[in-house]
Specification:
The chain contains 7 helices and 8 strands; from the N terminus they run βαβαβαββαβαβααβ. It is α/β, with parallel strands linked by helices. Strands 3-2-1-4-7-6-8-5 form an 8-stranded mixed beta sheet, sandwiched between helices. Strand 1, helix 1 and strand 2 form a beta-alpha-beta unit. The chain is globular and about 45 Å long. 39% of the residues are buried.
Length: 191
């Protein structure tokens, strides 16, 4: 039903945290494949992908937009879920994502969804966290909230621009508030 694309930065712990949170989705049959996209070339993520049964995509550039675009290009499912490495989806995401996909598919309207952001209770709050919280209130969701979107809709709006700075923010802006749903399920960043 859906392909999960996770751009990584060669760090095993964050990739494994996200993969562990996705296991129930794979067991429920909602996840068809997981693609780990990495540009570091250090071999760590390639080994993680091999052990976890994921597809590994190595890219030459360190651009986040290029990693997201490369994952989308290789994905085989009609629905795409983009998650940052270290993102842990809380309980309930499977049922809510399934309901969202079914509702959008039956309505014929283009819609995308982002998860509700929650800061890890174990992380220290810094100035950057405060500024990001203010940004979420003013401009809406940020790229670290994940994205659930139909492949056809993703293609129609042009996808992630590979070489653009802040490609996640650009795509969310192109979606606009009217075609974006904020899911109840929360996403917590680990690490």
């Amino acid at each position: 039903m859906l392909s999960v694309i996770i751009p990584t930065e060669g760090v095993e712990q964050t990739a494994v945290a996200t993969l562990a949170a996705l296991v129930p989705g794979a067991a429920a049959g909602i996840i068809r494949e997981v693609l780990l996209v990495d540009s570091t070339g250090n071999g760590v993520i390639e080994r993680v992908a091999d052990v976890a049964g994921c597809r590994f995509i190595g890219i030459e550039t360190s651009s986040q937009g290029a990693a997201l675009a490369a994952g989308a290009l290789q994905a085989r499912s009609p629905w795409l879920m983009f998650l940052p490495a270290g993102a842990v989806l809380e309980t309930g995401w499977i049922e809510e994502s399934t309901q969202f996909i079914q509702a959008v598919s039956s309505s014929g309207r283009d819609r995308a969804a982002v998860f509700r952001y929650a800061r890890s209770p174990y992380s220290d709050t810094g100035l950057r966290d405060i500024l990001r919280a203010v940004a979420r209130k003013l401009v809406g969701p940020l790229g670290d909230q994940g994205l659930l979107i139909a492949r056809a809709h993703y293609d129609r709006i042009g996808g992630y621009p590979p070489q653009a700075r802040r490609s996640e923010a650009r795509l969310l802006r192109r979606l606009g508030r009217s075609s974006r749903t904020l899911l109840r399920s929360r996403i917590v960043m680990a690490g």
